C-alpha cells in the first residue's frame, strides 16, 4: 500500500485524518460516499434521512464527502450541496465525471474537454459552490488521449474551480503514463486514486496498489463491503448461491466477527484499513453509518489477519509470480556469485 501521511495525534478527531497525497489537503480516513443520497435509483434515501446520515458522520469528526455527477441522476449532488452549504469551507467535497448523463447525447460522457466543461459547470451549480475540492476522473473512457484529459484538468485547477484531481477505475499503466506526462509538462497530477477493494475484491493488489505506493498516490477503497455482500443479512438459500470463494470469505468474516462481538461489516472495514487504504463508506440508514463508523474501534490481531488473508487471497499471476520465484537470483550475493 502507498505510504500515508498521518496528522499528529493532537489534531485528530474521532475519525483519524490523513493528508490526501501530494495535495496537502487534510481529509478523514473514512470518506462519506453519497451514492445513496436521493431516491431516483430506487434504493437510496430521501433528503431527511440523508441529512441524518451526514450529520452523524460530521459529529464523528468526518470532513470528506464524495459524490458524482451521475449519482441518482444528479440528486446526490443537489442534496449534498444543501447539506454542506452552512459549512462549505470546513468540508472537503469531491465529485466525478466520465459516465454519460444523457443517453441521447454521447458527449455528456467521456473524458474529453467538452464533457468535462459541461459536467463541472453542472456540478458546481448543483452543489451550490464555486469550487470543487477534488474532481475524479470516474473511469478511463478508452477514447480520449490522456494528455488531452490532463491538459483540460490542469486548466480547471489553474482557474480555481477545482483544487485537486484524482482518478478511479483506470488501469495502472494509464495512471502511470498520466503521472509521467503531468510531471514532465508541469501540469496538475493525480494525488489520489479510488479502486474497488474488499475481502471479496483484491485484484488491485496485482498492479494498482504497488503502482500507487511507488508514485506516492493515496488510495481509497470503494465498496469495501464487497458491494454489500459482507454486510447484508443473508438466508441459507442465498448463501448457497454464492460462489465458493465468496462463501469461504463470508464464513471466516462471520467467525471473526463472532469472536470479537461485532458485525461482519465492521470486520470487513477494519481489514481494509489494516491494508493501509482509506475507505469510502455509504449508508441507507443512520444505524448503518453508525455501524460503519464503529469499525474504527475494531482491533484485528495477527491470527484474525492471517485467517482473513488466507480465505480471501488471490493469485497475483504473471509476471508477479514468475518474478517472485526468481527473486533470489537478483540478490547482491547471487549477482556476485
TrEMBL record:
NADP-dependent oxidoreductase domain span: 29-312
| Classification via CDD domains | AKR_AKR9A_9B
Q: Does the keyword Oxidoreductase apply?
A: yes
Asked whether the keyword S-adenosyl-L-methionine is assigned, the reply is: no
Name the keywords, alphabetized: Oxidoreductase
Q: What is this protein called?
A: Aldo/keto reductase
Q: Which organism is it from?
A: Rhodococcus artemisiae
What is the taxonomic lineage of the source species? Bacteria, Bacillati, Actinomycetota, Actinomycetes, Mycobacteriales
Amino acid at each position: 500500500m502507498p505510504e500515508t501521511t498521518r496528522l499528529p495525534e493532537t489534531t485528530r478527531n474521532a475519525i483519524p485524518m490523513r493528508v490526501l497525497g501530494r495535495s496537502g489537503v487534510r481529509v478523514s480516513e473514512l470518506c462519506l460516499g453519497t451514492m445513496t443520497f436521493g431516491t431516483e435509483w430506487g434504493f437510496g434515501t430521501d433528503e431527511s434521512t440523508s441529512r441524518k446520515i451526514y450529520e452523524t458522520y460530521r459529529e464523528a469528526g468526518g470532513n470528506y464527502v464524495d459524490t458524482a455527477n451521475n449519482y441518482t441522476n444528479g440528486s446526490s449532488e443537489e442534496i449534498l450541496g444543501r447539506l454542506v452549504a452552512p459549512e462549505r469551507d470546513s468540508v472537503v467535497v469531491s465529485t466525478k465525471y466520465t459516465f454519460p448523463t444523457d443517453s441521447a447525447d454521447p458527449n455528456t460522457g467521456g473524458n474529453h474537454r467538452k464533457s468535462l466543461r459541461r459536467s463541472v459547470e453542472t456540478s458546481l451549480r448543483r452543489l451550490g459552490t464555486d469550487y470543487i475540492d477534488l474532481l475524479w476522473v470516474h473511469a478511463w473512457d478508452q477514447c480520449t488521449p490522456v494528455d488531452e484529459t490532463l491538459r483540460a484538468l490542469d486548466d480547471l485547477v489553474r482557474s480555481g474551480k477545482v483544487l485537486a484531481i484524482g482518478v478511479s477505475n483506470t488501469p495502472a499503466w494509464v495512471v502511470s503514463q498520466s503521472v509521467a506526462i503531468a510531471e514532465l509538462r508541469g501540469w496538475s497530477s493525480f494525488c489520489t486514486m479510488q479502486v474497488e477493494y474488499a475481502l471479496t475484491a483484491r485484484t488491485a493488489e496485482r498492479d494498482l496498489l504497488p503502482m500507487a505506493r511507488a508514485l506516492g498516490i493515496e488510495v481509497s477503497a470503494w465498496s469495501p463491503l464487497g458491494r454489500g455482500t459482507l454486510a447484508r443479512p443473508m438466508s441459507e438459500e442465498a448463501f448457497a448461491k454464492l460462489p465458493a470463494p465468496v462463501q469461504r470469505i463470508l464464513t471466516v468474516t462471520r467467525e471473526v466477527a463472532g469472536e470479537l462481538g461485532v458485525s461482519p461489516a465492521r470486520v470487513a472495514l477494519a481489514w481494509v484499513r489494516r491494508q493501509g487504504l482509506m475507505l469510502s463508506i455509504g449508508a441507507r440508514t443512520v444505524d448503518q453509518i453508525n455501524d460503519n463508523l464503529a469499525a474504527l474501534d475494531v482491533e484485528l490481531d495477527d491470527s484474525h489477519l492471517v485467517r482473513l488473508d488466507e480465505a480471501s487471497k488471490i493469485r497475483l499471476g504473471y509476471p508477479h509470480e514468475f518474478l517472485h520465484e526468481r527473486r533470489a537470483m537478483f540478490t547482491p550475493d547471487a549477482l556476485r556469485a
